[in-house]
Amino acid sequence: MPSSRILGFLVVFPWLLAAQSFTPGQSYFGANNYVEYIAGNMPIILSAPHGGLLSPASIPDRDCSGCSTVNDFNTQELARALANSMYERTGCHPHLVINRLHRRKLDANRDLPEAADGNPTAGQAWTDFHNFLGGAKNTVTWTFGKGFYVDLHGHAHTIQRLELGYLLNSDELRLPDDSLNNNTYTGYSSIQNLAENNAQNLSHADLLHGEQSLGELLHDRGYAATPSFTDPAPDPGEDYFSGGYNTARYGSYNGGAIDGVQIECNRTGIRDSLTQVERFADTLAVALIDYIERHYFNGLGTVLCNSTSAPDTGTNPWQMQLSPNPYCRSFQISQNDPGAVWQAEIFDFYGNLLFVRSLEAGISEQITFPQRQNVFVVLRRNGEIATARTVLHYCR
Ligand SMILES: [Zn+2]
């Protein structure tokens, strides 16, 4: 684990520097403005591959055999409303990538040949879509150590319920929990990383359809969902989408510390009107925040949105300094604000409080760890959270 972390750090570090030019909440566009990325600063990544409204005549309609060209109605609107609700509720921006092209022109949830059907302009949009998502995944991994990805869709199945896809089909979801918890089925899962390491030591089966599963957190708030504690798996013969290309590529199916789910939204009560879209988006925002606070960060998930891995050089209003970052054996924190009581709380990457130090004005506190690891430092000023920093561990 530490060696792969360090290797990853060496590879990603130059990119991290470049990433700092993205401002959270701002839109950035790929070629021809066909793909939009709204930069984030929290450990949640969203995408809307099938909600594009643009149909330029310069790109021929896809006509590959067996390819679907039907859009997921109102899912771009849902993705934008979800990002807005998260910001209103937490002050943090999720990362959001939107394919603005209609599915007739580009399917951003397929591999390239089927996605663009041989058209180079659509192919460039596909590349932009995945470059933005890959960049968001790197940013979240190196700022927070882990995170959660949601690919938003809409289904036309008869049963009006959310279908959460973790890459397990309905036969597999009906297996006994003991089977779902063995390596074969965790190995197929888009939440493989979370199943191995989560704040409450829940099992894979618990995370799929236990009382604290995402499906149940949505059910509790008035939206039917499967899998969930209430509806653990689709019955034989019932239609169900188990996740697709993006879920496999950006969840933890292939490893890494970002888990993922495909959310297929039913139409009635969710996508019929923009009023319903807004209401559901806000509920989904609350459920997702609840989910990452329960399973990833022990209540710290949103506090840490101001966290950054950049060295703090004391340019903030309270002259707080923290260096070096990255650290090898120890780092120092100081502040120059004699009128206030300062406290530094040091957390590990699972949100466990390691220890607390009080900071006197003008006196540097040296922080040394017996175990070398990446940590979060939450700084309180007169009891209020003033800032949060990610301090990365790296020794040459
Ligand atoms: Zn779709």
Could you please describe the fold and organization of this structure?
The chain is an alpha+beta fold. The chain has helices spanning 2-19, 75-90, 112-116, 120-144, 170-173, 177-180, 183-188, 192-196, 204-209, 214-220, 245-250, 274-295; strands at residues 27-29, 35-38, 44-48, 95-99, 147-154, 162-165, 225-226, 258-265, 312-313, 321-323, 330-334, 342-347, 353-359, 365-368, 375-381, 384-391. It has two domains: 2-304, Aminopeptidase (3-Layer(aba) Sandwich), CATH 3.40.630; 307-391, Immunoglobulin-like (Sandwich). It contains twelve helices and 16 strands. It has an eight-stranded mixed sheet, sandwiched between helices. The chain has a four-stranded antiparallel sheet with strand order 9-10-11-14, with no helix packed on it. A hairpin with a 5-residue loop joins strand 12 (342-347) and strand 13 (353-359). Helix 1 (2-19) packs across helix 4 and helix 2 (75-90) crosses helix 12. The model is unreliable at 1-20 (pLDDT under 50). The structure holds zinc ion. Zinc ion (ZN) binds at residues 50, 72, 153.
Summarize it.
This protein has 396 residues and is α+β, with helices and mostly antiparallel strands. The chain has 2 domains: 2-304, Zn-dependent exopeptidases (Aminopeptidase, 3-Layer(aba) Sandwich), CATH 3.40.630.40; 307-391, Immunoglobulin-like (Sandwich). It has helices at 2-19, 75-90, 112-116, 120-144, 170-173, 177-180, 183-188, 192-196, 204-209, 214-220, 245-250, 274-295; strands at 27-29, 35-38, 44-48, 95-99, 147-154, 162-165, 225-226, 258-265, 312-313, 321-323, 330-334, 342-347, 353-359, 365-368, 375-381, 384-391.
